[in-house]
Design goal:
CATH superfamily: Galactose-binding domain-like
Distance between the termini: 37 Å
Largest sheet: 7 strands, mixed
Number of helices: 2
Number of domains: 1
Oligomer: single chain
Number of strands: 13
CATH class: Mainly Beta
Length: 218
């Protein structure tokens, strides 16, 4: 009897360990609520820092913590460091809620403003690769654009488009390892950073979005 109990306990422990190993890694849940006008400690601006009319803020919307971004005639780009091997934690999960789409935004043209981008950064640091998932105003879902600059190679993928889900929280899932191999042609190196962007600088329009929890899992 004791042996049977011991076997059952060991099996249950094994299941618990396996479930823990499979649990998604929380990249950001916005539990750090800084003082007004300040970013969470792990996040900072990158690229050209705008003159902010609406400072980014961590808020509670419909009962969930989120990062709120609003722009009018400028863009916001935020990033934080992260060290994750996406060959093992392959799947990116996040939630977002678009409020205002930049009216003329279209990833296929010169007015490449989007209400939101979730951007993953990969080594090398001196010439990184970026993989961005986009909510576009006009370009259809699955549209992909490639840009190769002196200091950056980037693919942007439209995962949601247009106003159909405007004002609603929606969840997204992307198989990062598969996307990276398909677009860049090689297995991905460990992830070194993640960015969140909102754009309205290419035309006289505006953007507003909430970005909820971001996770990576198996």
């Amino acid at each position: 009897m004791r042996l049977r109990v011991g076997v059952i306990v060991a099996a249950l422990i094994g299941v618990a360990v396996d479930l823990h190993a499979q649990a998604p890694r929380v990249v950001e849940d916005w539990s750090d609520r800084p003082a007004a006008g300040r970013l969470p400690a792990t996040w900072s601006f990158y690229g050209r820092e705008p003159k902010l009319k609406f400072p980014p803020a961590v808020v509670i919307d419909e009962g969930r913590r989120a990062l709120w971004l609003k722009t009018e005639g400028y863009s916001v780009r935020l990033a934080r460091s992260i060290d994750v091997d996406v060959r093992h934690e392959r799947i990116l999960h996040w939630q977002w809620k678009a409020v205002t789409l930049p009216e003329q935004g279209d990833i296929r043209g010169e007015i490449s403003d989007q209400v939101a981008r979730i951007v993953l950064f990969f080594p090398p640091r001196y010439r990184p690769r970026a993989l961005g998932y986009v909510w576009d105003t006009r370009a259809p879902v699955d549209t992909e654009t490639h840009q190769k600059q002196m200091m950056l190679e980037r693919w942007l993928v439209v995962v949601r488009s247009g106003p159909a889900d405007l004002g609603n929280w929606v969840s997204e899932t992307r198989y990062v390892e598969r996307d990276y191999i398909r677009l860049f042609g090689t297995p991905p190196p460990p992830l070194m950073g993640i960015g969140i962007e909102s754009h309205s600088e290419d035309a006289p329009h505006a953007s507003e979005v909430f970005v909820g929890p971001i996770m990576l899992g198996r």
